[in-house]
Amino acid sequence: MEARRTIIAAVEIAAVIAGVVIGGKYGVMLLLVVASVAIMVRGGRWFEPRDGDRGAAWSALGGMIIGVAALGAAWIASPAIVESVGRDVEWTTEPVVRGSVQLATTVILVTVVLGLAAELVFRRWLLDRIAGAVVARGEPRQVALAAGVIVAAMIEAAVSPTGAGTRVGAVIASGGLGAIYVTSGGRIAACLTARLAFDVGAIIVQALRMTP
Q1: Residues with Cβ < 8 Å from 61, sequence gap 6 or more?
Q2: Which helix (H) or strand (E) covers residue 22, if one does?
Q3: Which of 97, 93, 86, 124 is nearest to 207 (CA)?
Q4: Distance between CA 55 and CA 83 in Å, rounded?
Q5: Alpha-carbon distance 139 to 143, whole Å?
Q6: In the structure, what pLDDT confidence band is assigned to residue 164 with cuts at 50, 70 and 90?
Q7: Cα 150-153-154 angle, rounded to 5 deg
Q8: Contact criterion met (CB below 8 Å) for 93 and 163
Q9: How far apart, in Å, are the Cα atoms of 99 and each of 18, 183, 204, 208?
Q10: Model pTM?
Q11: Containing H/E element for 68?
Q12: Cβ atoms within 10 Å, residue 93
């Protein structure tokens, strides 16, 4: 049993390294496949009973409100950001959607799928896995959760298809999603709706040419 756990852990670490090297959506998909196998071998599953309880609906609503609020704040601040950095704000990794509602629709569908994959990988798998490992070492649960949030955020930023200059922003955004996940009692709906509200909203405002 112990040998199997060691092998699984080694495979997971190797997958994270490979995911960072590959990067982008392919890196996330690789991590999703490896995580699915690791969770299955451990006898777990992606979705827990808490994801479908009464609190999940409230968590989803709260996450959506946070995502919309974050998008609104970014939109209001965007003129000042453009003026200070001297270039346009990159609202999405798919600038082709600007001015095209048709293309935006396709990109939104892909974004929703990738968003779900990312939240499962970086929250339900990595955050929970890291927190569980820290608790097993005798650390308090709050310390373990904080470690899970921080490490998962750093890994997501490393995997994300962003330039080096935006890594810090990616860490902050991912850390915020991790905090939402933890404070919602580990319900995936909260961080997922927060992510999708921001990402999908950003695509829409880009498509409608509402951004600088």
Answers
A1: 193
A2: helix 2-22
A3: 97
A4: 42
A5: 7
A6: very low
A7: 90
A8: no
A9: 36, 37, 9, 6
A10: 0.86
A11: helix 54-85
A12: 15
- For residues 163 and 169, the answer to whether their CB atoms sit within 8 Å is no
Mean pLDDT score across all residues of the chain:
85
User: If you average pLDDT over residues 132-139, what whole number do you get?
Assistant: 93
Q: Exposure pattern of 57-86 as b/e (b: 16+ CB <10 Å)?
A: eebbebbbebbeebbeebbeebeeeeeeee
Q: What is the pLDDT of residue 92?
A: 56
> Could you give the CA distance from residue 65 to residue 198 in angstroms, rounded to a whole number?
10
CA–CA separation, 147 and 198 (whole Å) = 25
82-127, pLDDT tens digit by residue? 555 444 555 555 555 566 667 778 888 888 999 999 999 999 999 9
Alpha helices of 120-166 — where are they, by DSSP H? 128-136, 141-159
List phi, psi (to 5°) of 199: -65, -45
Tell me how far apart the alpha carbons of residues 181 and 179 are, in angstroms, rounded to a whole number.
5
The domain ranges of the chain are 48-207
Distance between CA 108 and CA 85 in Å, rounded?
A: 28
Mean pLDDT, residues 58-82 taken together: 83
Q: For the residues 146-160, what does the mean pLDDT come to?
A: 94
Using CB atoms within 10 Å of the CB of residue 127, give its burial: 0 to 12 exposed, 13 to 18 middle, 19+ buried: buried
Q: How far apart are CA 159 and CA 157, in angstroms?
A: 5
